[in-house]
């Protein structure tokens, strides 16, 4: 047994990556919408809907890939609904996002009951799960193989998406237009950018990321859908994006921090600490981090 085994890192690191995956996917979606000036408050409901759509579609088709696509589409459609509410009906972005979260929680529970007769779980549906991926050569390396190989396919997708989103926002014409809209919609409009189109696109893509995060919950983290199974991860993703200072890499590190907090909480429950207390840790950590961030920013502004 190696020193790393003794320190528990061989078990802890994969646990952190697994817990971080849905948070990171949703946070990247929030990042895209935020940089376009339309913060996706409905990300929690989009994750939940994606989780539900993935289970139902994979059970209906017998294909995990079809389930993943359904989850992405479900999240994107809810992003389009939120965009329509804001851009066409001129409703408030924050209130519309909150309403979408409530509607998603109630709607998925209702549909689950209509399909299975059970309001709690989708155990009667023969849904599929997405696979884990073994990396050739690395998988056979002691310790390193355990740390880097054998993770869920969406875990790799989430971390590979980080540089992709970063390059998109900073190196591509569409990404630069999106950031211009977020910085100053009026100036962007004067420059000939279709502000509404960019913000609608941002919310749809943001919803697709959130739906993918939901697919991981029901087709990777576990193999079924349960009522309110997103359990606030969408709101934690919002905190991760804020803690990430508007950058893809910063959002990733913030997601890892929050994922580590949740993994530690789960581990401490196994050591006999009160589960009710430990379940608060993943939610207390982002609050504390945001308070520290806000105070630091106030000091910087005061010095300016």
From TrEMBL:
Keywords: Cell membrane, Membrane, Sugar transport, Transmembrane, Transmembrane helix, Transport. Pfam families: BPD_transp_2 (PF02653). The chain crosses the membrane at residues 12-31, 38-60, 66-86, 93-115, 153-170, 200-224, 277-294. CDD domains: TM_PBP1_transp_TpRbsC_like. InterPro entries: ABC_transp_permease. The keyword DNA-binding does not apply. It is found in: Cell membrane. The keyword Membrane applies. It is a multi-pass membrane protein. This is Simple sugar transport system permease protein.
């Amino acid at each position: 047994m190696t020193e790393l085994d003794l320190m528990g890192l061989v078990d802890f690191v994969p646990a952190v990556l697994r817990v971080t995956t849905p948070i990171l996917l949703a946070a990247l979606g929030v990042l895209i919408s935020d940089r376009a000036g339309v913060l996706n408050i409905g990300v929690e409901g989009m994750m939940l809907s994606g989780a539900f759509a993935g289970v139902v579609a994979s059970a209906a088709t017998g294909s995990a890939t079809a389930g993943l696509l359904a989850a992405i589409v479900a999240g994107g459609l809810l992003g389009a609904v939120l965009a329509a509410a804001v851009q066409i009906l001129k409703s408030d972005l924050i209130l519309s996002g909150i309403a979408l979260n409530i509607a998603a929680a109630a709607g998925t529970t209702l549909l689950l009951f209509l399909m299975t007769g059970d309001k709690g779980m989708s155990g009667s549906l023969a849904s599929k799960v997405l696979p884990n991926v073994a990396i050739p050569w690395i998988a056979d390396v002691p310790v390193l193989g355990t740390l880097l190989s054998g993770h869920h396919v969406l875990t790799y997708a989430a971390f590979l998406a980080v540089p992709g989103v970063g390059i998109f926002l900073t190196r591509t014409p569409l990404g630069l237009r999106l950031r211009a809209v977020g910085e100053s919609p009026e100036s962007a409009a004067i420059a000939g950018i279709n502000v509404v189109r960019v913000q609608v696109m941002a919310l749809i893509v943001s919803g697709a990321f959130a739906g993918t995060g939901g697919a991981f919950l029901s087709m990777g983290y576990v193999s079924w859908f349960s009522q309110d199974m997103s359990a606030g991860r969408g709101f934690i993703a919002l905190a991760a994006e804020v803690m990430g200072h508007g950058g893809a890499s910063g959002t990733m590190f913030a997601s890892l921090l929050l994922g580590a907090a949740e993994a530690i909480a789960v581990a401490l429950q196994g050591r006999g600490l009160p589960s009710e207390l430990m379940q608060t840790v993943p939610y207390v950590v982002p609050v504390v981090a945001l308070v520290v961030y806000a105070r630091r920013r106030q000091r910087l502004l005061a010095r300016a």
